[in-house]
């Protein structure tokens, strides 16, 4: 699959319960001066969780604009069997204090309506603590948008379910939905932000030419901000078992330099 060469995509894990889906949308191409169909985001959906372990996507100004937030309800992802998904069109989860938490944020994809509506697929949602969703996590999403660059910022946003946790909730249709214990983001870009040329690959750059960071936080009202959630991409790989940005040199994924981001 040639698409799996996109820099943001974690190494694919083959398990029966996992389904991989990429959604495409019109994106304005400044070089060609017109809209072209390009990737919006890719996700790793787990039917046993009724949610995605991760959603991977490029962050660039081409995906941002002034399209108003849609008022339509959440809907089933048309590329995934609906019986595997939570039904979120009926409202949020039954447990008080859990929000319908986007993985790729609606505000990350407001260049046009098509992009935005795809962020409201049930596959892009997890039961996230209401205060975390509306406070520190939301502010981290805003910072990530501000860290974009001409060379593209590559983002993976994920949920993690500790195997020891048995906490579940239900959607308004009565489907059981396991509640994540943690959330994470991992980011990668070139350090200068404007050096890439057509055809080159992110993995061709040396570790000191690249900039990566990870964020790891419990799914609760932590009352803290993202600068205290800092960790390395390598550490989140260890915690989750996923391999992120697999083409990057190992040294690049060991970075944890707060000064490069804040």
Shape verdict: globular
Number of helices: 4
How much is the average pLDDT? 96
**H/E topology pattern:** EEEEHEHHEEEEEEH
The poorly predicted ranges are none
How many β-strand stretches?
11
Strand content: 25-35%
Distance from N terminus to C terminus (CA atoms, Å) equals 36 Å
Give, in spatial order, the strands making up the sheet with the most strands: 1-2-3-6-9-10-11
Question: Over all CA atoms, what is the radius of gyration?
Answer: 18 Å
- Overall SS class: mainly beta
Helix content: 10-25%
Largest sheet: 7 strands, antiparallel
How is this structure best described in words?
The protein has about 260 residues and is mainly beta. It is built from 4 helices and 11 strands. The strands form 3 sheets. Strands 1-2-3-6-9-10-11 form a 7-stranded antiparallel beta sheet, with helices on both faces. The longest helix has 11 residues. The model has no long low-confidence stretch (mean pLDDT about 95).
Topology:
Layout: E1 18-29, E2 34-46, E3 51-59, E4 98-102, H1 113-119, E5 125-129, H2 130-134, H3 136-146, E6 153-160, E7 168-170, E8 176-178, E9 182-190, E10 210-218, E11 230-231, H4 233-240
Antiparallel strand pairs: 1-2, 2-3, 3-6, 4-5, 6-9, 7-8, 9-10, 10-11
Short description:
The protein is mainly beta. The protein is built from 4 helices and 11 strands.
Main features:
262 residues; mainly beta; 4 helices; 12% helix
